[in-house]
Amino acid sequence: LLAGAERGFLPRGEVLERLCRMVDFLGRAESHHGVFPHFLHGGTGATIPFTPKDDGGDIVETAFLVAGLLCARQYFSGAARQEAALRDGIERLWQAVEWNWHTQGGREVLYWHWSPRHGWAMDHAITGWNECLIAYVLAAASPTYPIPPAAYHKGWTDSPVFRNGQTYHGIELPLGPPGGGPLFFSHYSFLGLDPRGLRDRYADYWAQNVAHTRINRAHCIANPHGYTGYGPNCWGLTACDGDAGYGAFNPEEDRGVIAPTAALSAMPYTPKESLAALRHFHGQLGERILGPYGFRDSFNLTRDWVAESNLAIDQGPIVVMIENHRSGLLWELFMSCEEVRAGLRRLGFESPRI
């Protein structure tokens, strides 16, 4: 919405009105210690269980939501009453999130889920490397319920797949599981968090994301399983719908399913290669994979299958990351938040922006 307003694709006033409706809905919707569930009922705002025990707060999905809300707060910075009301509503939601509640009483790690019926039964500690860095950044940045830096340095990094250091297709990968994992690892946390020049004691995050992307593409070019269609212009393995169900596809779990979001949301990291993929998806495959909401979620040419679905969590990063590549808009907005800059400093990050 913000990219659309900035480029004149959408009327700014209508975008403001829509965001006000969203924030008003969230203010009335069910939350758990200020933390929203994975799914909300669009009419009532009630929690829709994701799994039987995942029927409460989801701190990671909430972090993605808050990152977007903070960008909207920064974008609509005018003195007009409606813009001020939007900022106030976002501020209430941001300050209500009890990030430290998700440490189970002060443990040095964040936990993904809490349920009002099942408590901490899922007991899923959030450790890296994956898409969840933004949860730690925002939890450290919270003006009301922050976590201590030790949760990041002791909890987030306490994983056998945090550090990597191996070479794949001639490319060294600093962090992550073998082969890098699905490409959304380099997308979701970095829709607002600017990886350009971002580093800490563990990694240079621009180098990490570029390496991850290049390895994913190189795997598709090598195509060790001989899948139809794979090549320099048709690549990108990530979590998406597949012909045999949803999966977190990656070089270690490759079933022939390409998701357009993988290559297109990597536009800042591999602009030439991602643009070539975009032209291939649109020009050569467009009749098969284009629908009323953009590209279908995924396809498997080996099985002559195209998804019927469009998933918002796959569509959104395409728009955001293309805009970040072109103008840095969402990166500029998110990194303009003083709380974010302070949170990054607390965790020991360096960046030209802080």
Describe the model.
The chain is mainly alpha-helical. The protein contains 13 helices and twelve strands. It has helices at residues 2-7, 12-28, 59-75, 81-96, 133-141, 149-156, 205-222, 260-264, 271-283, 286-289, 312-326, 329-335, 338-347; strands at 39-40, 47-48, 57-58, 113-114, 167-168, 171-172, 239-240, 247-248, 290-291, 294-295, 299-300, 305-306. The strands form six sheets. The chain has a two-stranded antiparallel sheet. β1 and β2 form a beta hairpin. α2 packs parallel to α4 (81-96), α3 (59-75) crosses α5 (133-141) and α5 (133-141) packs across α13. It is globular, with a radius of gyration of 20 Å. 46% of the residues are buried.
Helix and strand pattern: HHEEEHHEHHEEHEEHHHEEEEHHH
End-to-end CA span: 26 Å
Roughly what percent helix?
Answer: 40-55%
Overall pLDDT score = 98
Structural class, by secondary structure, is: mainly alpha
Mass-distribution shape:
globular
Number of helices: 13
How much β-strand is present in the residues?
5-15%
> Could you tell me the number of beta strands?
12
Question: What's the arrangement of strands in the largest beta sheet?
Answer: 1-2
Uncertain residue segments: none
Q: Let me know the largest β-sheet.
A: 2 strands, antiparallel
The radius of gyration is 20 Å
Summarize this, please?
This protein has 354 residues and is mainly alpha-helical.
Note the topology:
Blueprint: H1 2-7, H2 12-28, E1 39-40, E2 47-48, E3 57-58, H3 59-75, H4 81-96, E4 113-114, H5 133-141, H6 149-156, E5 167-168, E6 171-172, H7 205-222, E7 239-240, E8 247-248, H8 260-264, H9 271-283, H10 286-289, E9 290-291, E10 294-295, E11 299-300, E12 305-306, H11 312-326, H12 329-335, H13 338-347
Antiparallel strand pairs: 1-2, 3-4, 5-6, 7-8, 9-10, 11-12
Helix pairs in contact: 2-4, 3-4, 3-5, 5-13
